[in-house]
Amino acid sequence: MTTRGVHTTYEPQASAPSQGAGRRVLAAAALAATVPYLALKAAWLSGSRIGIPDGSALLEAGLFLTVANAVTLAMDAAVIVLVLVLTRPWGLRTPAWMLTVPVFTATGLLTPILLGFPGQLLVRALGFGPGPDEAAAREPFLDSWVFSVVYTGFTVQGLALAGLFVPYARRRWGRRWQGVVGERLPSPTGVVAAAAASGALALGALFLYWAFGGTAGLSAERAEAYTVESAVGSAAHAICALAAGAGTLLLTRGRTLRARWPLGLTWVGAAATLAWGAWMLIASLGPQVGGGEAPSTAGQLIYAGQMITGALATAVLTRFLISRRAS
Predict the structure, then answer these.
(1) Where do transmembrane segments lie in this chain (predicted)?
(2) In the chain, N or C terminus with fewer CB closer than 10 Å?
(3) Consecutive H or E run containing 250
(4) Domain regions of the chain by residue span
């Protein structure tokens, strides 16, 4: 006699997530944090010069930059939709891919900012940032307040979305990260994980090399623009790459570990490595603002390698989640 098993994916969907005060605060914070960026992008698309100083290369923006502003405005507006999906009753009925793809992308784009921006504020507060003379010597691009407002907004968005997504995912897919990583994945997945870990180790070493002032693989213009603040950004990308590599190995080696830790490492590291590799590669292939020096061929290959490494780690993550669903 056979019985039909109950699909555990839909078991948590019996009722909507609890709308506690904490979730309402996080939702409000995420929505409020989108306002400055959306307002700036809308203003620039309509021809405003707010935040753009005289002499800025942005004043000579062509079609590529206009399209980029429109695309990034739409990306930030998608945060509003994500907040609704994560907090409204109908959000639990959203097809999984329609939620996980944008959340994965948001995780990837925001994580290096969450790591790097506070670090840059810290080194600036400690007096290691560029001095007034050095800052004045740079070509004007945007008023300094623009970066502070925008990146503060991104930081709030990242923290708030994480605070909303984790309980949502626990309710909807909690069984997939409960328990331990106790079984090895099939051999082909192990090969992919080894390739991802090797690429992540190489990328981590390279980003740390740049963080400490190395110039190999950088264009002359970017090498000359090195500061302690840019070093913090490189270190943040190194952390993300190394997290992706470590997470993939932990997922495939079958060690008795709490599943949520390697899952979290791989999700965050793979997302950041893939998203920023793709973002930087696309930006390097387009026209440079103000006729600046294009990234070197070596730099473009590094961005491509970053994207590929993130994609390999993502494949391992996906295979692991599929195996958990099947079991």
Answers:
(1) 25-44, 64-85, 97-117, 145-169, 190-212, 232-251, 263-282, 302-322
(2) N
(3) helix 228-252
(4) 20-178, 179-327
pLDDT at position 290: 57
Tokens of 149: 């407002």
Could you give the CA distance from residue 157 to residue 136 in angstroms, rounded to a whole number? 31
pLDDT of residue 61: 65
CA angle 223, 282, 202 (to 5 degrees): 55
Strand 257-258 to 180-181 pairing: antiparallel
Alpha carbons within 13 A on the beta-carbon side of 220: 2
**DSSP per residue over 106-147, as a string?**
HHHHHHHHHHHHHHHHHHHHTT-S--HHHHHHSPP-S-HHHH
**Encoded tokens for 31:** 């929505």
At residue 49, φ and ψ (nearest 5 deg) are -110, 15
- Which residue, chain included where needed, has tokens 């056979």? 2
Specify whether the CB–CB gap between 257 and 250 falls below 8 A: yes
**Given this model, what pLDDT does residue 154 score?**
96
pLDDT digits (tens, 9 = 90+) for 226-262: 889 999 999 999 999 999 999 999 888 766 677 888 8
Other residues' Cβ atoms within 10 Å of the Cβ of residue 299: 17
Closest to 262 measured CA to CA, from 182, 163, 143: 182
The reported pLDDT for the residue numbered 222 is: 83
Closest CA to 217 of 209, 309, 225: 209
Q: What is the pLDDT of residue 59?
A: 76
Ranges of residues in the chain with a pLDDT under 70 are: 1-19, 61, 129-140, 175-179, 182-184, 254-256, 289-293, 326-327
Two tokens, residue 308: 């590929």
